[in-house]
Amino acid sequence: MNTLHASPLPLFSIDDHILTGDNITFRLSPNTSGRFQSGSPDTIVIHFTAGSSLSSSVNVLTNADSGVSAHFAVGRNGDIVQMLPTNKIAWHAGESYYEGRSGLNQYSIGIELDNAGQLKARGDGTFESWFGEIFGENEVLAAQHINQQSMGYWHKYTDVQIVRTLSLCKALCSHYNISTIVGHEEIAPSRKVDPGPAFPLQRLKAAVLQSDSERWATESSDSNS
Description:
alpha/beta
């Protein structure tokens, strides 16, 4: 069982709707519906990319023909790519519903995490992604998803990726009136399973929304159990 070491969290800030801090780049996506209305964003939606790399996912999210976009993508080494200013609407939630509201794009900031997603057991102790990459047992969590009926296999997140996502969420909540953090699986349960059981979503919510970052940093990482 690995732990997230107790160390100062990365410091990020938002300046004119652009994230500032170490190892952050900006690559503009054309896929937006314009500015948020007053009072938004008030929600963060966490996703996995189900892609082969950070760069390949950013290529899709910034392609005018893809029909999708997000505000941020977080790499497995902790690198962050911002693709839209945080006052612009991205196309990440799709058909979605949560606590009486539909169409969550118009209320939320989308964060994509570089992760292969759900994997298929190959019968030899290894696991395969939909795009053909093979993973060993140490890279995989066996768990039943809340939206599924049977056990599944999930690509683990890295500690640095989770900690950087935590810091990003804290910066966003400090700058905007954000009161809700959800997974894509919570707002589109009939069709989505991201970020999946390998991501400690409930602990992240508590750490960000309840200012419990110190406990977060010292407890064991559920995603790497």
